[in-house]
């Protein structure tokens, strides 16, 4: 199983490779792990989890609030998810952005816990 810290490091490097920044967020219970800033004014908040990790109630509340405010939020669990996220944010994966805060998962419909989850096993 991939450790969350390994996926986080991979995310940071992938974002930097695209010319962006991947800032670690701290200070509030439940707030997403990373703020992703990419060229072109793309801003996304990313929660990192292991394959079997579940979002806490506070994380789900934060994600819903951010989505309702029009921000892009994602839950990633693996390097494959990171690759899919970067492709989606870079606009190379089709008509996936449905408007502010409304991003369709790349595959499937996500789950109740992770409605905006990206990756093959969503």
Name some characteristics of this structure:
globular; 3 helices; Trna Endonuclease, Chain: A, domain 1; alpha+beta; four-stranded mixed β-sheet; 122 residues
Number of strands: 4
Number of helices, where a helix is a run of at least 4 consecutive DSSP H or I residues: 3
Mean pLDDT: 79
Largest sheet: 4 strands, mixed
Terminal residue distance:
17 Å
Estimate the global geometry from the Cα principal axes: globular
What share of the residues lie within helices?
25-40%
CATH class: Alpha Beta
Tell me which CATH architecture applies here.
3-Layer(aba) Sandwich
Q: Radius of gyration from the CA trace?
A: 13 Å
Write the layout of secondary structure elements.
Elements (H helix, E strand, L loop, with lengths): L3 H14 L3 E4 L9 E5 L3 E7 L8 H12 L3 E5 L2 H11 L33
Parallel strand pairs: 3-4
Antiparallel strand pairs: 1-2, 2-3
Helix pairs in contact: 1-3
